Amino acid sequence: MPVSPADSVTTKRYAQRLETAYTNKAYRWNRENYSRRRRFLDIWAFVLKLLAGFWLNNKSWSYSGGVTEAKRIARRKAQAVWIRNTLLDLGPTFIKVGQLFSTRADLFPSEYVEELAKLQDQVPAFSYEQVETTIEQELGKKIPEIFYNFEPIPLAAASLGQVHKAQLHSGEIVVAKVQRPGLRKLFELDLAILKGITRYFQNHPEWGRGRDWLGVYDECCRILWEEVDYLNEGRNADTFRRNFRGTEWVKVPRVYWRYTSPRVLTLEYAPGIKISNYEALEAAGVDRKLVARLGAQAYLQQLLNDGFFHADPHPGNIAVSPEGTLIFYDFGMMGQIKSNVREKLMQTLFGIAQKDAQRVVVSLVELGALSPVDDMGPVRRSIQYILDHFMDKPFENQSVSSISEDIYEIAYNQPFRFPATFTFVIRAFSTLEGVGKGLDPEFNFMEVAKPFAIELMTNGNGSEGNSFLNELGRQAVQVSSTALGLPRRLEDTLEKLEQGDLRVRVRSLETERLLRRQSSMQLGTNYALILSAFTLSATLLFVTHYVWLALVAALIAAAMAVTLFRMLRRLDRYDRMQ
């Protein structure tokens, strides 16, 4: 049966709606004849410009009127906006990489992380002819053979694909999610170029030190390939649906596996009001305060009870039915927490509750969120600062966003290596807290989380007596395991001593001060010798009538003189401070 065509007025209205919803900008990556060489130049031009900006950030002379912390922050914010816009121009691969990097506050300053979190998939829709071709290739039939009705204008379009409303011949209303043509080819090309860029960063003497860029690249590749596999997304949706099968206030669209393939996903049509459309919710008579609490409870259940959670719960992926039921969409990016990770996470929570920075450090190392280094003192002091700063306030009076901002600020340039799961959780908590406050100004995410945290920390036993006994038992097990492991640790230490692998680090502030001064004086002497040599050369060249060469030598000598003068001033200022 042929597809029912929309009348000309409706089609025009849909076209106008689509034109206003998505930009008409012509993206080079969306062209069929886009060459590999041009792509290489576009990507490397962005990277080189970015590196030049980073280099200028550390040069005080590049700030008019002198450098201040406020000017540094303002420049980083402006750069972050430019990065976000450029990633959008570079297309699907870089949009997704930018969204993943928005969770890596251990790698980038907070200004970049906050701006990348705003990165949205606002790209043009692809043509209906391409949709027809993709569905026929994937499902082996033409659209009229599968669907009784199929709307040619998509409900939504993103970097990876777009969604069309349709009706099966059985009468069921569905949505067909169709992948953007040429996406896998573009991913292969972009990831090959990105691997070369990653190697450059990994081998860089400054940016590569203490950072596993190749590991970050591998993680990005894994997440990207999982997200473009619609069969994987369908399995995620089924798992998510099973986890909430006993919860009446959560709706998860059903997957129609008969009409699903790696590039086409057919789901039950589940319309709703966007959770951040507060006026529409109010008009529909939905209890906004209840929706805010249910949203937080749903996510906490995913995280703490199921261990399988939605890793991208932004407002576009959550809707509310007129009856107040939460509807979840888009299951391409999901997170998983294994049972052994939950046990280690519990040790972290106990360390936080007791303000024991050492226990928190040990548990974070075991979780893989912290790289062990020779001197853990600065890291321990940073964690102790967080504990002292936040634990003085009641748990329910704390804010997820403020805690995460401080954690990210402290984590940057420290040996933290937050796993993707951890950063997905933090970002999701912050997003849900923001949406909750929009729904209910008095909403407090930590207040909703408190019962879940208590249950986790007491291991499911509600009474205080049992909680005390559990903790006492855990302490006894910890002491016994430490005692039993002591001989092995002593043996390892002696073996390292015999092999010359044991290093003892001793810090002497006075010695370090003298060494820095001696190094500066030696460098100043070198500049003075160079200055003298070029001054003498300029004089001899001028006397022998080589005026232009003499001028060049004089300019170099002048530059050396300015550098030497600034160094002497800095050395003098440093001596006065001591």
β-sheet strand percentage: 5-15%
- Quaternary arrangement of the chains shown? single chain
Work out the radius of gyration: 30 Å
How many helices? The count is 21
The chain-level structural class is alpha+beta
Helix content: 55-70%
Profile the largest sheet.
5 strands, antiparallel
Average predicted confidence as pLDDT: 77
Which residue ranges are poorly predicted, with pLDDT under 50 across at least 5 consecutive positions?
Answer: 1-15, 17-24, 460-468
First and last CA, distance:
88 Å
Shape: globular
- Number of DSSP-assigned strands: 11
What can you tell me about this protein's structure?
The chain has helices spanning 8-21, 36-57, 69-90, 92-101, 110-116, 128-139, 143-146, 183-203, 213-227, 230-243, 278-283, 288-306, 339-353, 357-367, 377-390, 400-411, 420-439, 445-457, 464-499, 509-543, 547-577, and strands spanning 147-150, 156-157, 161-168, 173-179, 250-251, 264-268, 273-274, 308-310, 318-320, 326-328, 334-336. By secondary structure, the protein is α+β, with helices and mostly antiparallel strands. Among the domains are: 8-124 and 186-227, no CATH class; 339-472, no CATH class; 509-577. Helix 3 runs parallel beside helix 5. The radius of gyration is 30 Å and the shape is globular.
